[in-house]
Amino acid sequence: MSFKKVSHVIFDLDGLIIESESIYATVIGEIAAKFGKEYTRDIRLKIMGTPEPVTASTAIKELQLPYTVDQFLEEYLTKAKELLQHPKLMPGAKELIEHLHKHNIPIAVATSSAQDVLDVKIQDHLDLISLFHHVVCGSTDPEVKHGKPAPDIFLVCASRFPDKPHPDECLVLEDAPNGAKGAVAAGMQVILVPDPDVPEEWRKPATLVLNSLKEFKPELFGLPAFD
Ligand SMILES: O=c1[nH]cc([C@@H]2O[C@H](COP(=O)(O)O)[C@@H](O)[C@H]2O)c(=O)[nH]1
Ligand SMILES: [Mg+2]
């Protein structure tokens, strides 16, 4: 299979750079359990990668929770911020970010997180995050009207590089099917690095699926190869 050459790379954050997905699953799982409900894989697939208000409304609807969006968000974000202070990095993330930065490839982050939650999650990794040209936070950025799986966040992210690349010059790296759909809708190629339990059907929108960022060969997309 051949891929188109790109010049810019846009990274997702949760589940792609940092290992936060298991924590989000625990937080929503605990809220569900209080009401005798189970946060199943199928509900999680719908929620993963969405901005916080959509995470809240989807969880309330799918789990039939007796909460308003604001009540859910209050509990969800308080617990998430407690548990997300020291997330580990995903395998291969640091090496890839440093490699692309060293070769002057413009890189940025497009996360559905809110800015204040992002600040908590990245506090142990500020040196690494500083290598990105910019970070777009979908839940709080006024220019991002619709969250993933809409294309908005990726288009806004591309437009904030100084040379404003065309979508087909951007490669997106994502862990969530919602993110992969958004990237494709934006006209970008997308590599999906999914949780092992993401079913085949949900992987289909991706240009390429990898088990880990360690498997990524940048030269397939016209980017500098690892030495
Ligand atoms: O089990 C999960 N619940 C909720 C989320 C939501 O998805 C977003 C992750 O954003 P991204 O992968 O775009 O960084 C977070 O804002 C979080 O609210 C998630 O990832 N996983
Ligand atoms: Mg993600």
From TrEMBL:
<dbReference type="GO" id="GO:1990738">
    <property type="term" value="F:pseudouridine 5'-phosphatase activity"/>
</dbReference>
<comment type="similarity">
    <text>Belongs to the HAD-like hydrolase superfamily. CbbY/CbbZ/Gph/YieH family.</text>
</comment>
<keyword id="KW-0460">Magnesium</keyword>
<dbReference type="InterPro" id="IPR023198">
    <property type="entry name" value="PGP-like_dom2"/>
</dbReference>
<protein>
    <recommendedName>
        <fullName>pseudouridine 5'-phosphatase</fullName>
        <ecNumber>3.1.3.96</ecNumber>
    </recommendedName>
</protein>
<keyword id="KW-0378">Hydrolase</keyword>
<dbReference type="InterPro" id="IPR023214">
    <property type="entry name" value="HAD_sf"/>
</dbReference>
<dbReference type="InterPro" id="IPR036412">
    <property type="entry name" value="HAD-like_sf"/>
</dbReference>
<dbReference type="InterPro" id="IPR006439">
    <property type="entry name" value="HAD-SF_hydro_IA"/>
</dbReference>
<keyword id="KW-0479">Metal-binding</keyword>
<dbReference type="InterPro" id="IPR041492">
    <property type="entry name" value="HAD_2"/>
</dbReference>
<dbReference type="Pfam" id="PF13419">
    <property type="entry name" value="HAD_2"/>
</dbReference>
<dbReference type="GO" id="GO:0046872">
    <property type="term" value="F:metal ion binding"/>
</dbReference>
